[in-house]
Amino acid sequence: MSAVVAGLTAGLVLFPGLAPNSVGRLGSLLEAFLPWLGLVVVVLLGVGLLRRSAVTLLALLLPAAAWTYTFGGLLLPGAPPGARDLVVVQHNVSDENTDPAGTARALAEAGPDLIALEELVPSALPVYERTLAREYPHHAVRGTVGLWSRHPLTGTRPLDIKPEGIEEDWRRGLRTSARTPHGDIAVYVAHLPSVRLGAGGLVSHRRDESAGLLGRAVAAETRDPVVLLGDLNGTVDDRGLAPLTTRMNVAERGFAFSYPAGLPLTRIDQVMARSATVADIRALPATGSDHLPVAARITLD
């Protein structure tokens, strides 16, 4: 039995796409927590030691090797900072955040070049603008998403990533261009629809549709490099984000679990890039949000 569990775990780690998505979006649900399959190795190790079973101990080598191959690189130290690096921060600040000023100060303390925020509400927006104004004099806001920058922003426009069936005012995407010391870069900020877990499984069709719209917008972008910052309500392993992950680079180092803030189990706050490398990503301390902020270092090609 241990050998069967070990083989199944290794197969799912290496080939999560084999898990079907036709019923309850089980494949996407698995992919949301894929790194945690490594706990199976720990359980098998305990079972093998308690039973003094050589077969079990030998079997655990298969999922251990699969996990190391898939995720081990994220634990390695990253390259030292370079002259063409940009630091960015991504944070869903929560529309129920009672301390927007404290949140803004905490994000600025990381010293990023760019700060992307989601779930901006009219009552909190002036607080973010006022608190970040000195260090981030350039900013753009469209609907509930915004970008603060040390560098000038030009060509800002909203992104239409609204899925069908949403009737209310729903503006969750923007595109702008940041004039950095290393040249202009296209910057996208997006907040994809939430997914829900119910009796019938994972409900993600709106998120998936919105990811497709965002992926097409990125594909049509004529400027390089491109940086995407956002609460994408999915992990980089989730096949629902394939319209983005097949076109853009994701973080090479770091897990940076960001949600929920009280017990981070997954990272749905993402930093991606095209014609640039997301060298590493890390979670920042908690703010007044139900998400943790994430900071990433981007190396321009």
Give an overview in words.
The protein is an alpha+beta fold and 301 residues long. Helices cover 30% and strands 26% of the residues. The chain is built from nine helices and 13 strands. The protein has helices spanning 2-14, 26-32, 38-51, 54-59, 61-71, 100-109, 125-132, 205-220, 242-245; strands spanning 85-92, 114-118, 138-142, 145-149, 153-158, 173-180, 183-191, 196-198, 201-203, 226-231, 269-274, 276-283, 294-300. The strands form three sheets. It has a six-stranded mixed β-sheet with strand order 3-4-2-1-13-12, with no helix packed on it. Strands 5-6-7-10-11 form a five-stranded mixed β-sheet, with no helix packed on it. Strands 8-9 form a two-stranded antiparallel sheet. Strand 6 and strand 7 form a beta hairpin. Helix 1 (2-14) runs parallel beside helix 5 (61-71) and helix 6 (100-109) runs parallel beside helix 7 (125-132). The longest helix is centred in the C-terminal third of the chain and has 16 residues, at 205-220.
**What is the multimeric organization of the chains shown?**
single chain
Question: Which regions are unreliable across 5 or more consecutive residues at pLDDT < 50?
Answer: none
Classify the helix fraction into a percent range. Answer: 25-40%
Strand elements, count: 13
Q: Strand order, main sheet: write it out.
A: 3-4-2-1-13-12
Number of helices: 9
How big a fraction of the residues is strand? 25-35%
Report, as a whole number of angstroms, the end-to-end distance.
Answer: 49 Å
Q: Report the sheet with the most strands, covering strand number, pairing sense and barrel closure.
A: 6 strands, mixed
Rg over alpha carbons: 20 Å
Derived from helix and strand composition plus strand pairing, the structural class reads: alpha+beta
What is the N-to-C order of secondary-structure elements (H for helix, E for strand)? HHHHHEHEHEEEEEEEHEHEEE
Shape: globular
Overall pLDDT metric: 94
